[in-house]
Design a protein that fits this description.
Alpha-lytic protease prodomain-like, 8 strands, three-stranded mixed sheet, Alpha-Beta Plaits, elongated, single chain
């Protein structure tokens, strides 16, 4: 209910105001984390349980994460300027790293403390209200995870997705603590330290997973196969566009993903006609998919007899090769021909194999066109 209200408040004629929505969501997360942490700290003062304390401190780190997210998202939403022409959107990924780093440090600290409790166990007396209070915090964290989930998917926020995973982890952690308390109450076995280790390991796993995912994005992780297929399919539906290939992605933040693709247009088109087609496709597909699409136009066909002849021979060569998918951008300069080749990057991976593939292609072409030199540019396809 609150997620819908927040999204409604943050919607305008231009779509979602991501910064406003993310800040309001993080603020609600902060309030709910403070409530859960306070309840668990109070329980710890009565029990001295390391598992309850680790759970409480985990919620306190969530409070810190929410505060960092609120200020970080505000900074990330700053408009582009002279020094940052593509905006500040990548700050959101750095914020996710900071949040994950905090969670990681907490995990290591409580792993050490919990091992100490296993080596030197102490009997714990739990008040009757313990289970009830912990169940209340489970509902708080589950509601919080649901809020983050709805909003994160609506505005595609990496930071809120990270907080959603953290909230679900907290829910599971508290449930494990509850089960351990029940077992300890009925069997007399002191499980506090063991549960603390499980909680710490789960915190570490969550933090490492978030760090890996965020670093992967910062290093230039490509789009999913489904998204790439969707972009190619949309572009290919337009008249005058064919052979969509060579997709490159640059992620400057969730609101600023630039996708560069090559597409073939009939070489008989005038420059103005080709520009109008490309401009229409870029504008409409960008708006539809929430990206910034840039199309590099390749000529389909050629007025040059030699280029047409090379194209035909290349098609025969490709049919005989398992590691070459296609070719494009055949350019003739004096007596030298430049060719872009799309190859299987999984099968041809190291520099020696790439050079061998180039040499094989050049040798085959030189055996046919002895008066020309060739340069092969390899484009990796994964």
């Amino acid at each position: 209910m609150l997620a819908k209200l927040i999204l409604k408040r943050g919607h305008n004629a231009y779509g979602y105001d991501r910064a406003k929505i993310a800040k309001e969501t993080s603020f609600l997360g902060l309030v709910s984390n403070i409530m859960a942490a306070l309840l668990k700290v109070i329980l710890y003062t009565f029990t001295g349980s390391i598992s309850i304390l680790s759970d409480a401190v985990n919620n306190i780190t969530d409070c810190v994460s929410s505060i960092i997210s609120i200020f970080g998202i505000k900074l990330a939403s700053k408009p582009r300027d002279r020094d940052h022409p593509y905006g500040h959107g990548r700050l959101e990924y750095l914020i996710s790293l900071v949040v994950s780093g905090i969670v990681l440090s907490v995990g290591f600290q409580f792993l050490r403390t919990s091992v100490g409790k296993i080596l030197h166990p102490l009997a714990i007396t739990y008040p009757k209200s313990t289970i009830v209070v912990l169940i209340i915090t489970v509902f708080i964290k589950f509601w919080q995870a649901s809020l983050y989930s709805h909003v994160a998917r609506a505005i595609d926020s990496t930071t809120l997705k990270a907080q959603e995973k953290d909230s679900l982890s907290d829910t599971l952690i508290t449930l494990v603590v509850i089960v351990a308390i029940v077992i300890e109450k009925f069997t007399g076995k002191i499980l506090d330290g063991y549960v603390g280790v499980l909680v710490a390991l789960f915190i570490l796993y969550t933090a490492i997973s978030l760090i890996y995912e965020t670093i992967s994005i910062i290093l230039g992780r490509g789009l999913s196969e489904e998204t790439k297929h969707e972009i190619k399919s949309k572009v290919s539906t337009y008249d005058g566009i064919s052979n969509v290939h060579n997709m490159m992605v640059t992620d400057f933040g969730p609101d600023n993903i630039i996708v560069l693709i090559d597409a073939a247009l009939d070489y008989n088109l005038t420059l103005e006609e080709a520009h109008n087609i490309v401009d229409k496709v870029e504008r409409e597909v960008s708006e539809l998919l929430g990206i910034k699409l840039i199309i590099h136009a390749d000529p389909l066909g050629s007025s040059s007899d030699i280029i047409r002849s090379v194209s035909q021979d290349l098609k025969k060569i490709i049919r005989e090769s398992l590691n070459i998918y296609s070719f494009h951008d055949i350019v003739l300069e004096d007596k030298k021909i430049y060719i872009d080749i799309d190859y299987n990057a999984d099968a041809v991976s190291n520099p020696r194999e790439k050079e061998a593939l180039k040499k094989e292609l050049i040798d085959k072409l030189k055996s046919i066109y002895k008066d020309y030199d060739f340069e092969i540019i390899l484009d990796a396809i994964f």
